[in-house]
Amino acid sequence: MGEQFPGGLLDLLDAAGDRPVFEHAGRVVTASGLLGLIRRVTSGLRRHGVRPGDGVGLLLGVGPEAFAAVVAAHVVGARVVGVRPGLTEPQRRLLLADTRVQVTDVPAAGVSVTDGRDDGDDPDTRRHGRVLALSELLAAPDDGVRPRVSARPHDVARLIHTSGSTGAPKACAQTYAAMTAAWALRPDLWPPAVRELAARLDRFLVFGTLASQVMMEYGLLALASGGTLVTADPPVFPDALVRHRATASVITVARLHRLVARQRARPADLGALRALMVSGSPLEPGRLREAAEVLGPVVFHGYGQTETGMISMAVPGDPPGSLGVPPVDLVVRDASGRTVPPGVEGELFVRTPSQGFGYWGEPDLSAEVFGDGWVRTRDLGRLDAEGRLWLTGRTRDVVIVNANVYYAGPIERLLATHPAVAEAYVVAVPDDDTGEAVHAFVVPAAGRVPELGELRELVAAHLGGACAPTRLTLIDEVPLTPAGKPDKRQLAART
C-alpha cells in the first residue's frame, strides 16, 4: 500500500500549500504552516530518542500544535496513547505506565513538565517516562524537508482506550497498516454516506481533545475534503456554532437534545450549519424527527466502536431509527453462530478496513471479541430487505454516558462493598444531560439504609463520576429470570 500513515496526510498538507486548515484562538494556520509544526515536533521527538515502537503518551487539547504532535508521534512510528479528560488519577497513570515519553500542553493536568532532560533520578521519570512540554518540542529547528515516515505496517500505531469502568481501561490496539487502510484520507474509497458528509465539512468545529478517536478521524476527513478545523473552547452550543460560523461538528445525543430545546426557546442563527455527527449512543426516532424539524436535515447518525471504527452511518434522508447501509462486511448471527436472513435479529459481527486486532496485554478478552478476521460487536440488530442496519439491543451489560461505554459489573461489585449494601444491580436509564445514566437497585444490609450521596462518592472515587449512580431504588430482593439470573429487564421497567 506504499508509505504508511501519516504519509498520506503529509502529502495532502504539502499539496494544499497556503490553504487555511486550522483556526485557533484568533489565528489562521495554513497547510504549509501546519506541516512546519509537524516537522518541528518530529525533530524534537527524534532528538529525544523516540523510535518506532516506543510508547508516547499525549495529554493535549485541540489546537494546531496539539494536532501536529499527534501526527509527529505517528511519523516517528510511535505507539501513541491519547489521554482523554475525566479519568481518575490511577486510571491516567495506568494508561501512561508503558510510555517512554509523555507530551503535554496542559500542565494543569497533574503532570510534572520537564525541560526535556532525562532525569534518571526522578522517581516519576523512572516509573512513567519523561514528561515533555509541547512548547519545548516546538523549539526544535524546522529544516523544511518532508519528514521521513518511520512507521512500519505491523507496529502498533495507537492504543485507543475504552471508558475504564472496570477500573483499568481496556486498550484496543490498532496497527499502522490498519490506520493506512482507513478511508478518511482516501476520497476514492469514501462510501456514499461519508462522501455526503465530507461535502459539508467546510468548517469543522473541534473541541475537547484529539485523544478522541471520533474527533481525530472526522478531523482528518475534513482536511481531506478541503475543509478547515475550527477550535471551540468551551464548546457551548449553539453559541460556538454561531461564533465560528461552523458548518459541522460532533455532538452527543444529550447535547443534541439540549440544542434542540434551546433552539425552540431562543432560536440562534444556524444558517451555516450543515452537519451534526451523532455517535456513541442510540438516537431515538422521535428525537431525530424533532431535531430535523428544528435544525433541518443536518443530523448524521454514526454507528461504530473503539474496536472497529465506523461501521455504518445514517444520512439525513434515511428512515429515522436506521443506521444506513453498512459499507463494511457485516453479518447477523444467531446464538449458535449461524448467519440469519434479512429481517431476523441477531448479534452483529463486522470487518472494517481500520479495525483493531486485540486488546493490549489481554489475550483472553481479545479472543472473546476478535476472531477469524471478524469483530464481535456484542450489539443486537437486523438488516432489512434494502440492506439498512437497525440496532435492537445489546448483549453487553453496559451504560453509555456521554458516548462512553461503562460496564455494569464493576460498578455493582464496588457498590456491594459498601457496609449498607447487601446486593447491588445497575441498569441504564435515559438521561437528557448525558444520554444514559446509572440507576442502582440495592438490597440493603440488615438494619442499614444506604444513601445515594454516599454511594455516588464511593463510585466516583474509584471508577470516575460518569459511573456514579444518579438514581437509587431500594428493593427487598432482585427479580429473577426463569434461568435463575437477575432479571434486569424487570428492573429497568421500574425506572
UniProtKB/TrEMBL annotation:
Keywords: Ligase
Residues covered by the AMP-binding enzyme C-terminal domain: 411-485
Domain AMP-dependent synthetase/ligase: 17-360
Top-level division of the source organism's lineage: Bacteria
GO molecular function: ligase activity
InterPro entries linked: AMP-bd_C, AMP-bd_C_sf, AMP-binding_CS, AMP-dep_synth/lig_dom, ANL_N_sf, ATP-dep_AMP-bd_enzyme
Protein's recorded name: Fatty acid--CoA ligase family protein
Species the sequence originates in: Streptomyces similanensis
Lineage: Bacteria, Bacillati, Actinomycetota, Actinomycetes, Kitasatosporales
